[in-house]
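User: Quick sanity check before I run a bigger batch. Here is a single chain. Can you write out its predicted 3D structure?
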Amino acid sequence: MGARIGRYEHKYIISKQDYYRLRHALPRILKLDPHNQFGKTYNVRSIYFDDPFDSAYFEKIDGAFERTKYRMRFYDYSDKVIKLEKKEKIGGITFKTDMLIDRKVVEIALKEPLYLDINYFADPLYKEFVIACKTKRLLPKAIIQYDREAFLLNYEGIRICFDSQIRSCPPLENAFDEQLNTMTMLHEPIYIFEVKYKRFLPNYVREIIEMIDTTQTAFSKYSISRQILSQNHKITR
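Assistant: Done. Predicted structure follows.
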């Protein structure tokens, strides 16, 4: 088995004006993600899991050198493509493992993860997740959704994303409902600008990013969501 290759993920909070500047320049060197049909954004909705001690939340808040989180993700409110994802961060490098699951698994995980059948899928990631649910008592903690516009470059896995309309709600059982009652996480017009690549970011890409006056941020959709959803009671250790 070859060495596992991670990627760098840089995040920036930008204005709508900066978005337009970048959006105008990026198509010169990158291709629009095929999911952005007819130039429109696509919706991403994720269910995040954590243990009773909120370990994933505090690992992020504390800036732990190594941290792990699990989520289930689907697109445009559809159950046609649903992914179980594990994200690990070691230092400044992110590793992501994923697999396809079905709606039945999502519905069970939202009600009671302890009831997940470890033999339902043979994929090691699924079995690892089920074991974590049963031993660490992972539970759904938040649903987060946003609209995404992405650009790709067939070099070093370069992917550049603009996320907007970022909203959140508690882990409700009707997770596929387009009309979920969600709360705004960032007041518009604000975008999360993400730059992802494996080892090297070419200068001609960096030059476009440097067109705007912004600095990298450690923004975490999951952490901000938990803080907003817990406004009436502070998350404690």
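The first strand starts at residue 8 and ends at 15.

User: Great, the batch can go ahead then.
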